[in-house]
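Section 3.1 - Work completed
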Amino acid sequence: MRPIVVLALLLVAAVMPVQSRAQFGVAPAKPLERAKVVYPEECPSTADQTVDVMYDITSEGTTENIRVVRSTDSCFDNAAVDAVRKWRFEPRTVNGKPSPEYDRATRITFAARGRVENNIDELLPVMAGYPTNCAKGAKEVEYVTLRYDISESGETENIRIVKSTNSCFDEHSARFIANLRYGPGGARTDVEVTLTYELQ
């Protein structure tokens, strides 16, 4: 079986609950227009650089709550966020009705100068990753629920495990949350995340 991990985000202090992605009649958002990512002149590089972004898609098909999850060079972060802000989607539908989609994750690759003309090399889903050392003896589905705070600078802190079906996944999950980055000025407390690890 192939291991995958699904990230579901629930803001305890917010008003929008996460809807089940396995819910009957749910169709994910589909890209309609993806603005070209502009290679930032101030970021010279001789190697490919990647920026992993996470964002929400509104019921109107626009993007919001865009944040960098990780990147190989922070110089490219703003260019990636600026591009995603202009993307447009056919919105997610639930039983035929437009509905927000949360935590869409995408990897943007800035190809090294001179190698290719198009600096968008790939757009791939970003997952937390399945810790291979936990696969042996794991159930088909394992869950780890965590809570954390977001600082004014956008960093995650005060990370704690709330509930876990298998402690082997705890450290890996905490490291993933520690690497999340949000936009500055959006401090929050008690953000709750459930990581679902699936063997398929």
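Second construct:
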Amino acid sequence: MSLHSKRSPSACTRRVAAVWVSLFLVSAQAQPTGLLYDPEPPVDSGYVRVMMATDTPKVSVVVDNKVRVSSLEKNQVSDYMVMGAGMHQIAMVAAKKTVASVPLDVARGSAVTVVFTSPDVAPQIFVDKTSNNKLKAMLSVYQLASKNETLDILTSDGTTKVFSSLAYGKLGALQVNPISVALIATMSGAKTPLASTSLTMTQGGAYSVFLLPAKNDKIAAIQVQNKIERYTGK
């Protein structure tokens, strides 16, 4: 007599079907409700961030009639927004009124910073430099503080000059070692600090320092680590 009983074909079929149903239910229950990864931006995307360096206390950033940043404080820079290549209309809106706007032709693969320094004048538009060297950090300085004099950027002990003779509306950018460093801004050729800031940089990171006018003819140095908005494809 056999140790294994024989089953009819129909019984085997029912058993296999039950196993597949069971596996399907387990798979369905294990499937997360969200996405494991966000979608990649389209290949023709550019990246644009904005700053409102005026006396307007708070604005919304509207791109092509769609709110992209709901609240941006004075002298705060937004994350880079993902935009398709081509023309876009960027507006800064406060109390439902447009206080400043600019048309911008976004190039594929570009990174751009738009700084509104006054509602009555065209914004400063910078084409940012990027780096693929993951062992270095990227440091960028935007000179928007002194229209009549150029500025130097040095380490706080004065021994290393990072950027020389930055004129108003100019950008200085270079790859640096990922270290913690204190920087000062001075009039070109001088040693007296007009502004100072400290950075803790890491490998592959990108950092920006915005030099802006402050009260009593002083200079404010605002530093940020560059970020890209979370892209959801919507």
